[in-house]
Amino acid sequence: MAETRTITIECLRYNPETDSEPRFQSYDVPFTDDMSVLQGLQYIKDNLDGSLTFRWSCRMAICGSCGKMINGIPQLSCQTFLRDIFPARVKVEPLNNFPIVRDLAIDQSDFLAKLQSVKPYLIPKDPKPVSAGTFKQTPEQMDEYYQYAQCINCQLCYAACPQYGLNDKFIGPAALALLHRYNADSRDGGTAERMEVINSEEGVWGCTLVSYCSEVCPKGVDPARAINQNKINSTKDYFLRFIAPKGGR
Amino acid sequence: MQVIETDLVVVGGGGAGLRAAIAACESDPKLRVALVSKVVPMRSHTVAAEGGSAGVVRADDSLDNHFEDTVSGGDWLCEQDVVEYFVAHCTEEMTQLEHWGCPWSRKPDGDINVRFFGGMKVQRTWFAADRSGFHILHTLFQTSLKYPQIKRYDEFFCADLLVEDGRVRGLLTIEIATGEMVLFDCASVIFATGGAGRVYKQSTNAGTVTGDGMGMAFRRGVPLRDMEFVQYHPTCLPGTGILMTEACRGEGGILVNKDGYRYLQDHGLGPLDPWPRPKAMELGPRDRLSQAFWHEHQKGNTIETPQGPAVHLDLRHLGAKKIHERLPLIAEAAEIFARVDPTKDPIPVCPAVHYTMGGIETNGNCATSLPGLYAAGECSSVGIHGANRLGSNSLAELLVFGKVAGEQATAHARAQSRGDSSALRRQAQEQETKLLGMLRQDSGDRLATLREGMRDTMEANVGIYRTEDAVREACTTLAEMRDRYRRGVRLDDRNRAFNTEWLTTIELGFMLEVAESMAHSALNRKESRGAHQRLDGYKDRDDEKFMKHSLAYYAGDGAPRIEYGDVKITKSNPRARVYGGEGKKADLT
After folding, report:
1. Inside any domain, residue A249
2. Quick one: which of A22, B51, B289, B491 could link to B247 by a disulfide (CB 3.0–4.6 Å)?
3. What CATH number did the domain enclosing B209 receive?
4. Is pLDDT of A59 > 90?
5. Is residue B566 part of a domain?
6. What CATH number has the domain bearing residue A126?
7. Is B555 in contact with B516 (CB distance < 8 Å)?
8. What is each CA distance from B44 to A58, B17, B126, in whole angstroms?
């Protein structure tokens, strides 16, 4: 068996039924080289304190459930390893900028509403029945949107976004990247319908291009680039309004 | 207790549940649909499916090929009329997903590309790189947002299915954030709750895959069919069980033992050349490959890792470009979770529990024997997988039968008049009292003690190969675990709000009963077929006695009662199940 060492994991605790404010609690956790922060939390829950509350599911960085602030940085706890932090302590907090439901679990409802607001579904440019077969789309056309389709909705980018921290009306990085994913899809004709969201104060103009969102993304999505692209589109749309009767197309 | 009146409740927000909810809206736009899920839908385990989804599309393929591959892959324990329906509807579902925006991988001319999977005569697997499940799930979830009649109840834990006068009348759920009970008063329920892989120790499955729907249906008298057939996926990371997709081999990856030898040729999958060829060597089916691993381990030919024995999955000859284009998730996951760069080194892999072939018995319309209850996806046994599921048939199943379940459950809901709900409310209150009682339990085992006891015995005794003695030991241990569970689990957490210890304890109750149905079905099947292999004098398939579905019935606190049901044969009579052998070299697409 692999060598076992002991690391201290300090977790934010908050129970809405009994606590007036959050506190921290430390646990000593034996770990092997292959253990993630998530596995450390699971060890605590199984063996030391069954009341520690956190979300997790796939433990392979694809379901987007287990994002936490780990030593101040928004990260997926399943792919952050205890060996890389040892001998320092691990400080685990819920993702920044979200209300806490309990301990490390945040309230995701605002994020889910924002996702819905960008009409994140294909609005076909040239609808046809399923019996007519698939649409053509070359690999080059796929490249236009493909990276933006990799978002796992883990919300790390919202925890990283200073604008979202200041103004939670801001649509935010992941939802705007998803909006761009559909606008940039050669099969989609819904750009005009999504323009209202882009143009609003809470749309792309809310972003001040700190780009920390792109830095923390665990899937290589570049929301800052998507937002910047849509600032250009939004500006074009604004000027085209003066010359075209129905807004820019 | 809050009561929500609706027409249809879909339990589970994975591929099958979302597809069912959309189909329900399309077939009756006025229907009130509640989508209840213990996680936000895009967290569901469909997200982790990698390789792809089957649908006949090439000129050199046919529906007959897909049918034959599926039925022989299932060692003839499939409902052949259901398989015929299935293969005829896969491709239109893949096309529908494309119309909804799914980024299927393409050929240079912009048409859909398909790849090989194990046990497949012709390339038939639609894929979105190696994140096929992720893209399917997000496409379905995002598309579902177009339908305002789907009312989502995210992070509501379903604790019980409520039955009155022999038909479904409601569901008792717990709103996770508050711990409050919420009763759904409804006419139709679709279970799309996924499999039960977490009853084993080493599994590719997410933590949520705990057999909840199977457990609830079982307790209400619906049989669980063919539960002894549990699929071990041959290529997973030792320890965590994280999946290294079959597409690795579909793209040309090879498996070697500690001597660098392609050992599959010694286990009925050879000869080596010409290679690659369909249904041979690394393109054999999962049950055979996992069994071959077991034999190599017996022979001392596996590699020791800190997490246990392994063989090597070697992708290096594919080249970095192809690996990063076709298998980006694998490259990333191998790097992060195994610290291996697969462009430079082989990946250590071993079999891990992956899929529950059996499940809630349904007919071809996804209807169970309980009026108003439907099931689709991995929690169900609609009859297409038999004794061993073919890779890329499960994603297709979610779509084809998710749609059927949505339409059928809608028709049922429309035809019902529900009437008085006072008995339903009383029943819900009785259940609520029991569930809340768990929070006050002062003595008993820790949750993890019972859960690990169950997992250890399943892994050790109801694994790739089985014997009477070992399976009996599992049955005894499971009965003991259930007994201790009944006496009570002592929780650290006495709160109601977001009490995941409480919820996982309820899940454990389902898991123990589902595990028992697996073990007892395995004990009684005295033959070897597909994923159920015995070493104790029943090494061969016995069509005479066991060309039958196992049916496990709930029997209260005791062991389940095992009965048998007929298998529907339409056009393929059982014959020897042969892989490897002669064949032409195939081109990888």
Report:
1. no
2. B51
3. 3.50.50.60
4. yes
5. no
6. 1.10.1060.10
7. no
8. 8, 10, 21
Residues A182, A78 share a domain: no
B410 has a pLDDT exceeding 70: yes
CA count, 13 A, side-chain hemisphere, B518: 38
Tell me how far the alpha carbon of residue A96 is from its chain's centroid: 12
Q: Are B155 and B358 in contact (CB under 8 A)?
A: no
Test A62 with B143 for CB contact under 8 angstroms.
no
* Partners of B348 in the β-ladder: B312
How many domains are there within chain B? 3
Q: 3-state DSSP call for residue B231? A: strand
> A149 and A198: one domain?
yes
CB-CB contact of A65 with A155 (8 Å): no
The chain-wide mean pLDDT, for chain A, equals 94
ipTM tops 0.95:
yes
Q: Which domain holds residue A134?
A: 109-243
Residues 14-53 on B with a CB inside 8 Å of A are: 39-40, 42-45, 47-48
**B500 shares a domain with B390:** no
> Are both A197 and A222 inside the same structural domain?
yes
Q: Are residues A210 and A228 in the same domain?
A: yes
State residue B386 phi and psi, 5-degree precision.
60, -135
With CA atoms as reference, the chain A residue closest to B237 would be A60
Q: Flag whether the pTM goes above 0.90.
A: yes
Q: What is the pLDDT of residues A67-114, one digit of tens each?
A: 999 999 999 999 999 999 999 999 999 999 999 999 999 999 999 999
> CA-to-CA distance for B249 and B389, rounded, in angstroms?
17
B45, B100, B242 ranked by CB distance to A122: nearest:
B100
Domain that holds residue B14: 2-229+357-424
The residues near B148 (Cβ < 8 Å, ≥ 6 apart) are none
Question: Cα torsion for B287, B288, B289, B295, to the nearest 10°?
Answer: 110
Active site residues of B: 233, 249
Contact A124 B99 (CB under 8 A): yes
Tokens for B108, please give them.
Answer: 């240079």
Residue type, A217: C
- SS3 readout for A158-220: HHHCHHHHHCCCCCCHHHHHHHHHHHCCCCECCHHHHHHHHHCCCCHHHCCCCCHHHHHCCCC
Distance from C-alpha of B76 to C-alpha of B71, rounded to nearest angstrom = 5
Give the best residue of A34, A66, A125 to mutate against chain B (max B CB count within 10 A).
A34
Residues A82 and A157 in one domain: no
β-strand partners of B114: B126
What pLDDT sits at residue B419? 79
Q: What is the pLDDT of residue A248?
A: 41
Chain B nearest C-alpha distance from A163 (Å): 25
